[in-house]
Amino acid sequence: MSTSVTLQFPASTANLGPGFDSLGLALNLYLTLEITRSSDWKIECRSPLLSSLPTDETNLIYQVATLTAERYNAVLPPLHIVIDSEIPLARGLGSSAAAIAAGIEVANYFAQLELTLEEKLLIGNEIEGHPDNIGACIFGGLVAGVSIGEVVEVVQLPKPNIDIVVTIPPYEVKTEVARKVLPEQLTREEAVLGSAVANVLIAALLTENYELAGKMMEKDRFHEPHRLPLIPELTEARNFGKEAGAIATVISGAGPTILTFAPKGTGEYIASLFQRRFSHCTVKQLQIHCNNLEYNY
Ligand SMILES: Nc1ncnc2c1ncn2[C@@H]1O[C@H](COP(=O)(O)OP(=O)(O)OP(=O)(O)O)[C@@H](O)[C@H]1O
Ligand SMILES: N[C@@H](CCO)C(=O)O
């Protein structure tokens, strides 16, 4: 084990429309940590995207790292951590899941825990509360996950052969706030429809029927209809995407980022159209991040 290490953690999008708290897809924006053993704890944030983050013991990465070490009765030495990130905070691109995965990995490395991917997932799911973003961040690619009591299952699905465009509004939507607008209960009819739509979405992705997948992506019943008022750009972006030839346009995670699936080879063109139309937003074409967090130290 070296006294310093650089670790990276991917962004992720969750839900894909349907698949609330269950589907996640890892993306190629990264949280990067440069970590060195030190005489005292010191946390620094390098990216302007992180300017609002605390650098004391309330920092999420620090909290998760100490909690993970404590869980295994291990000692975490004082560290100097420099945090850099391309993942904007509270935008629905899994910044908190990346930070949680980072905290777990810091403990894994410096307290020599030798955690498996499944053990990292269990801890991450406990903290995040659902396995979609954290599952994608730890396993990479497209995942379907479920958390039942103490058990968490995550299955990695084949990488969809599509292009991905994200439209990131300039405002934050905290996940906590976006979950409060969701109804406590759904009628049986709504729940059955929501589950059926998610099942057909997965089947369509597995059979590479992206036209059908796109139809299902825009038919969620569990969260999208309730979160529409939080994201004023969404309805227009969905119609605009359709006219531009996109497969589907949905909320990324808890929002406000808008996720567009585009036919392979058209992402750059569709991103340029979205950037022109939604000029107050940051539009990026992203790739699927496929590696898992299995480090060989
Ligand atoms: N690199 C980081 N270091 C420390 N804390 C972080 C980091 N990134 C995110 N956080 C914490 O997570 C919060 C954002 O979490 P939130 O769940 O609201 O949004 P998100 O994870 O970006 O979006 P979503 O869960 O919808 O994908 C930040 O306000 C901050 O408290
Ligand atoms: N599935 C979560 C993702 C954000 O953490 C939600 O939509 O609230």
Structure summary, number of beta strands: 10
Q: Which CATH class of the largest domain?
A: Alpha Beta
Number of helices: 10
Helix % is 25-40%
The tally of structural domains comes to 2
The main β sheet shows up as: 6 strands, mixed
**Rg for CA atoms:** 19 Å
CATH arch. level architecture of the largest domain: 2-Layer Sandwich
State the low-pLDDT regions, or none: none
Q: Could you state the order of secondary-structure elements as H and E? A: EEEHEHHHEEEHHHHHEEHE
Distance between the termini: 6 Å
Given the C-alpha coordinates, what overall shape results? globular
Mean pLDDT: 97
What ligand species are in this complex?
Answer: adenosine-5'-triphosphate, L-homoserine
| CATH domain fold name of the largest domain | Ribosomal Protein S5, domain 2
